[in-house]
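Dear H.,

Thanks for agreeing to be a second pair of eyes. The structure we're designing against is below in token form, covering all 266 positions.
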């Protein structure tokens, strides 16, 4: 099978993972994905900038945790694991990726073929507990449970109950010393625009829920994990960008702010 093929992918309808791939400059996408991304960028012109920062923050997390000695990573809602994903930033680590979408998983298997340090599983983030208990995970990790979890860009697709359950299930499974990287996408709850409502509606049309909580609400959902010493940081700050990197225009009149946070199990 050639690297340009798209196994069992459905090219007729936009797909969130392929939409992100297009925005990030990838080639694993179809015309409906590109058209949807372009339309959404018209509604929210800063969207590509935020998405690029989300991917860059995942890379930064991988580098930081690899430097701390982590050699096992488990990522959720991974999308397409192109050359800018965790396994490229932490090449000596063993990495498990996962996604619920079968088309995405099939393409990922093609992208990762021949890499013995990477495993890609089809699993819904809302059933992380089952995936972690699976024989495939146990064998691939060799029983290791001190891991670095990745959950970048997922919180917007989770209800409060789902997020609390997700955090609890990971905490209960993980060994002390494990860490969990989250991104929290927030806006001023009092503000909205017609363009924003259409933007959210586009995700709904793809079958994806989409909701933003406040930073305080997100942090209240993550116990028993505790925030590390750096606290919750705006993505631009986490990535070392200058203070004026994100402008008022980037916040779209909505007070948009995305945060990176590393949680730990002590």
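And this is the sequence the design step returned. I haven't edited it by hand at all.
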């Amino acid at each position: 099978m050639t690297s340009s093929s798209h196994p069992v992918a459905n090219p007729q309808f936009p797909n969130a993972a392929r939409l992100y791939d297009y925005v990030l400059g990838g080639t694993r996408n179809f015309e409906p994905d590109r058209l949807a991304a372009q339309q959404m960028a018209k509604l929210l012109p800063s969207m590509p900038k935020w998405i690029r920062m989300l991917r860059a923050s995942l890379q930064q997390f991988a580098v930081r945790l690899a430097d701390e000695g982590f050699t096992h990573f488990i990522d959720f809602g991974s999308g397409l694991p192109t050359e800018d994903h965790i396994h490229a930033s932490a090449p000596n680590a063993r990495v498990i990726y996962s996604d619920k979408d079968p088309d995405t998983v099939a393409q990922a298997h093609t992208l990762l073929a021949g890499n013995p340090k990477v495993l890609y599983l089809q699993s819904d983030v809302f059933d992380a507990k089952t995936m972690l208990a699976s024989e495939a995970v146990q064998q691939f990790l060799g029983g290791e449970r001190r891991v670095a979890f990745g959950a970048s860009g997922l919180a917007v697709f989770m209800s409060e109950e789902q997020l609390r359950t997700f955090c609890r299930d990971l905490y209960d499974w993980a060994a002390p010393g494990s860490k969990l990287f989250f991104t929290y996408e927030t806006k001023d709850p009092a503000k909205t625009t017609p363009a924003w409502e259409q933007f959210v509606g586009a995700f709904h049309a793809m079958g994806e829920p989409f909701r933003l909580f406040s930073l305080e609400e997100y942090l209240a959902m993550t116990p028993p994990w505790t925030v590390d010493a750096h606290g919750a940081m705006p993505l631009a700050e986490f990535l070392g960008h200058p203070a004026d990197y994100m402008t008022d225009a980037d916040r779209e009149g909505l007070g948009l702010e995305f945060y990176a946070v590393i949680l730990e199990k002590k």
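Two observations from my side: The domain at 16-264 is CATH 3.40.50.150 (Rossmann fold). The longest strand covers residues 179-186.

Warmly,
E.
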